[in-house]
Design brief:
Elements (H helix, E strand, L loop, with lengths): L1 H14 L33 H10 L7 H9 L13 H8 L3 H14 L4 H13 L3 H19 L17 H9 L3 E8 L2 E7 L6 E7 L13
Antiparallel strand pairs: 1-2, 2-3
Helix pairs in contact: 2-3, 4-5, 5-6, 6-7
């Protein structure tokens, strides 16, 4: 039951990028912090293309090449596509209106993976709860740009047109954003296949992902 509630909360946030939180919640003034912005992990080369993209985004320039930004992340020496954000604590914090905790989780994740769409979506929800529409809009633009770039890598209908995620979490993100329930996952010849079900119709289908780049120090396939 707890897991089911978590999935529903996650799907609600993903499908409503522009209206993740319909009603702003009352938050104490002390919680309206604007200074906790993601920084770059000390392990990341500040002169790398990835770092340059991050600095532009942090400066408010959301009109970047998101496909190139995603690819730049895979070029980092410590890149590992299997790394995945555990969103459960963040969504639990949001349900309990613990915005500070949820924001901490998002910021810490963005410090090491500013390409993580889930983390940006959590930030969107937090900023809306805190009554910070400008910051919420900025985070929404980044999440939308990253999602659009991911969708442009394929259609997921088969191995030849498989999506090319750069993080394992993106597989589940696409399924949830489409309102589908993941019933299983299988690894086939360098591909991951999510077995999904449409909860409204009961229709079953597969979503294919090219997972060849999901290992440390091995760049993901170029878009």
């Amino acid at each position: 039951m707890v897991a089911q509630r978590g999935r529903k909360g996650r799907a609600m946030l993903l499908r409503g990028m522009l209206c993740l939180i319909a009603v702003a919640l009352a938050v104490p003034a002390a919680a309206r912090e604007t200074g906790r912005r993601a920084t770059l992990s000390g392990k990341i080369d500040p002169n790398s293309d990835y770092a340059k993209f991050v600095r532009r985004l942090r400066d408010g320039d959301t009109a970047i090449d998101y496909a190139a930004f995603r690819l730049s992340f895979t070029k980092l020496p410590d890149y590992d596509g299997l790394d995945r954000l555990d969103t459960a604590p963040a969504y639990a914090a949001l349900r309990e209106r613990k915005v500070g905790l949820a924001l901490d989780i998002a910021v810490k994740r963005l410090d090491v993976a500013y390409v993580d769409i889930d983390a940006h979506l959590i930030a969107v929800a937090v900023y809306r709860m805190m009554g910070l529409p400008d910051k919420a809009e900025e985070a929404t633009a980044i999440a939308r740009g990253l999602m659009t770039a991911l969708r442009a890598t394929g259609d997921g209908k088969g191995p030849q047109t498989a999506y090319r995620p750069i993080l394992l979490g993106e597989e589940y993100l696409l399924a949830n954003a489409s309102g589908l329930r993941v019933a299983g996952r299988e690894e086939l010849r360098g591909h991951d296949v999510l077995r999904v079900v449409d909860p409204k119709t009961g229709a079953k289908s597969d979503i294919w992902f090219d997972s060849a780049g999901f290992s440390a120090n091995t760049p993901a396939p170029a878009p």
